[in-house]
Amino acid sequence: MLPAQMRPLILLTNDDGIQGGGLLALAEAMAEIGEVVVYAPDRNNSGVSHHVTLDRPLRIQPIRPGWFQVDGRPADCVYLAVHEHLKRRPSLVVSGINAGPNLSYDVHYSGTVGAAYEAALMGFPAIAVSLLGPSPFDFRPAARFAKDLAQTVLERGLPRDLILNVNVPQGEPTGFQWTFLGHRLFSHSVAKDEDPRGEPYYWVGGEAAPPMRIDGSDTHAVAEGRISVTPLSLDWTHQAALQGKMAAWSVSGKTPQMAVDPKMRPKEPPF
Ligand code: MN
Prior knowledge:
The protein is α/β, with parallel strands linked by helices.
């Protein structure tokens, strides 16, 4: 095996917190292909998306060799590791393995995905990995696939304007599939009750309805027992809208100043 400094540096984080079993399984698998460093939140941060902490100081605490606990969000962990702590630049950033899916438009809420986005914004190849429930979770098949995908990314590279969002079904997957985001609806319920002082409180977040069966979608792939890999774009611009009827709207009687030419857009962000 190559000395640690010559092996690719792989930065890991998650949103379930540094105690998360998925993070440990991921670290063990990734140690086979690189030097692993872990910067992870000190507690569960599920649902924090790409939150960065701008309103208070952050602290980094060493836990054991190569493992650091941060009292911030997953994106803070990536930011601090890269800009402050690490002696060399990572070759790859992997976030997970999340205990539970990050499918469909849920990716907008996911702290697991948010950390990968932070890494990609800095110009690093980034992968988010999630394992479908329910518990108990056996993270080993997901960790194996994450390692194999990571190896492929290290060899081939990734376009710099995307991240890979991986969802692994429970049990032994039958293979993997490239996918687009599916449609998974929620009941959007609000639980209302009273606290011991008689004040009302509210608990948001509803139950997931069964996903629509759309061939090629992430939700369908995992329902069929396959690992889903979705490339997610950094650029949220809706290109079709810029080329469609909306681009000719007049607002308050005024027509738009300039039509958008798609050729004006750089292919990759300027890192
Ligand atoms: Mn989570």
